[in-house]
Each structure stands twice: as C-alpha cells, then as structure tokens.
Amino acid sequence: MAKFFGNLHLVLVVGLIAAIAVMVGYGESAPVTANGIFRWAHTFFGILWIGLLYYLNFVQVPTMPKVPAELKKGVTGYIAPKVFFFFRYAALLTVVTGLVVAYLTGYAHEALSFSGEGNVKLIGLGMWLALIMAFNVWFIIWPAQQKILGLKEASDEEKAAAAPRALAASRTNLLLSLPMLYCMVTANLGA
After folding, report:
1. Do 37 and 2 share a structural domain?
2. Tell me: the pLDDT tens digits for 99-136?
3. 21: phi then psi, degrees, rounded to nearest 5
C-alpha cells in the first residue's frame, strides 16, 4: 500500500482510469462528449494552478523569511523549481482547455468580445482575468523566479529587483483569482 501511494505517477494513472470508468459507467445519465472531457480537464488543471497559487501566497512566501538560512536551499533548490514547473504548465493547460471548451460550446468569440448575453459575458470576464493571470505566470513571475532561484544567471542586484516584481504579479493573480473563480462558477450554474 505504501509503495502504491508513494508513486505519484501510478496514483495519477489509476485516478485517470477511475475517472474513465466513471465516464463509461455513467454514460447513460451523462453522455461522454469532447466538451465534457475538456471541462473535466479544465477543472483539474485549474485546481492545480490555483491551488499552487494559493500555496505560494499563503504558505511558501510568508514562511520563507522565518526559514533558517541553512535550510532555505532545500526550498529554493528542490521544492520551488518543482512547484513552478507544475504552476506554469497548469496555468497553460487551464487556459488551453478553457479555450477549447469555449470553442466547443460555441461561445468563444462572444465571451472574449463581451458580445454574448448573461452567463456568456460572465464567462468572458472570467476568461480575460485568467488570460491576464496566465500572462503574469509566464512573462513576469517565471522569468523573475528563474533569477531568484538561480536557474538563470543573474547578479545580486537583478535578483533583488526580480523579487518585488514576482511578488506583485503573484499577489495580482491572487487578487484576480477571486473574481475569476466567481465568474467561472456562477456562469456555469446554468450550463
């Protein structure tokens, strides 16, 4: 049992198989469609992305100043690079699967241009907030973190300048995540 749960990839594969079994087993009451599969993937990647955003803002960033200097390398050398890998690719896959859902549902253009009605406008706002957040992840937070974590050559001055930039973008994403989540959840109540 410990060997199974100690293997992340095996747990994910078994979880995927279980999800497929549910899809097939309940296909009569909830037919399996491309839209449904992409919504499920969008939700999974969104939970991973926002979960890591909240982990970074609620746990790692506030705790780092309290971590003894000799232990910081454990976080910056091992934990943070892995967190940022999953963080940035979860952001990318959340956006991609969300855009596919919007396309398959037929409201991509109306949502992104705010020309739709009711829930479509709300989804559009949520989509734009998520796009801003993903931009922050890939073009502000990640380049700054590469310098801060020593994954990219940078002087001490460049690292010092990168830290407040990364923090501001991360806190902006935290702020935007709250209305974005409201838009996504509320717009889908009628879907």
Report:
1. no
2. 999 999 999 999 999 998 889 999 999 999 999 999 99
3. -60, -40
Task: Tell me which residue has tokens 């949520």.
Answer: 126
Query: 114-148 burial by CB neighbour count: b if 16+ within 10 A, else e?
Result: eebeebbbbbbbbbbbbeebbebbeebbbebbbbb
Q: How far apart are CA 145 and CA 164, in angstroms?
A: 11
Domain shared by 28 and 39, yes or no:
no
DSSP designation for 149? T
pTM of the model: 0.92
Residue reference for tokens 């702020």: 175
> 62 and 152, same structural domain?
yes
Residue range(s) defining the domain that contains residue 20:
1-32
What separation in angstroms does the CA of 165 have from each of 93, 97, 142? 24, 28, 10
7 and 59, same structural domain?
Answer: no
Pairwise CA distance, residues 46 & 94, whole Å: 5
In one-letter notation, the amino acid at residue 101 is V
